[in-house]
Amino acid sequence: MLRMNVRFLVCVVAMFGGSFGCALTAQAQSAPAHGLWVWKSTMVLAQNRAAETLRDFCRANGVNEVYVSVPSQPDAAQLGRLAHVIDVLHRSNIRVEALLESENADEPGKHRDKLLDHVRAIVEFNRAHPQYKFDGVHLDIEPQQRPENKGPGNLRFLPGLVDAYRDARKIAEAGGMTINADIQNKLLKGDLNERRTLMTALPRLTLMLYEVSSAGDGDTLEQRKEKLRAASAKFLAMAYDGLPASGAATMTIGLRTPDYGDQLPAMLASLDKENGAYRHYAGWARHAYNDVLGAAAN
Predict the structure, then answer these.
(1) Domain boundaries, the chain
(2) How large is the average pLDDT for residues 228-252?
(3) What percent of the chain stands above pLDDT 90?
(4) How many beta carbons lie within 10 A of that of residue 196, not counting itself?
(5) pTM, whole model, 2 decimals?
(6) Residue 4, CA distances (Å) to 1, 7, 9, 24, 26 in order
(7) Cis peptide before 233, with omega less than 30 degrees from 0?
(8) CATH number of 32-297
């Protein structure tokens, strides 16, 4: 009871000081993550009432965290729009993570240094905007896209990727932020040692579970749900097979609009229903808000 009262008082003090951090932390602990990627934020956030429109979409679709892409060298106007969208989303208890991407950050040297400098820039942004802080860093590092890394079983890039995760984690956590990273199911097909290094590099990972179904495959909604149930159970089991009960990352499962079209919300809800009792399951994420904007413009 004493611990609960102290935590409550800290939250009250923080809220009167203009910070929503405690409310967001409490929400993250009490409910599964429901995430949304926002790419090309320079263009998306430049539109009239973009932050408010994004907030309304999140409210209507049960989204409680947003991954907003951040340019490596934003100008003053872009920084102002980032601060504004954080403020608007925080006021609705929606977390905001800085979305950073790279195809080469697994390689030590200039490519990894560029990513780590980007993480440091997010820390500096938070210091400069104490009332409008990013809650976390969200990494999208895709070395598997390079030709030399393609092919089943080809995980020679994994040690470098894990090193990049660990280096970014040190910076993000020292800056008071969480850190999460998108992964492909290929990374879960390694041996036990490879999976152990991956699953302990970060506290949370997001599995991009794509192409389980397609919008035009002729399946019914229930058939698609069954395919997704089987696939999510398969990869969750694969990820944690042989690992200790504690110390491994939790996992969010990401789905994309092209695979399910208008049925995407129902598929996301089915993930919570089927996997909610699994100790490592952290929630779902939908890729991407840009698809929604594109559909609205057509």
Answers:
(1) 1-30, 32-297
(2) 97
(3) 86
(4) 16
(5) 0.90
(6) 5, 5, 9, 16, 12
(7) no
(8) 3.20.20.80
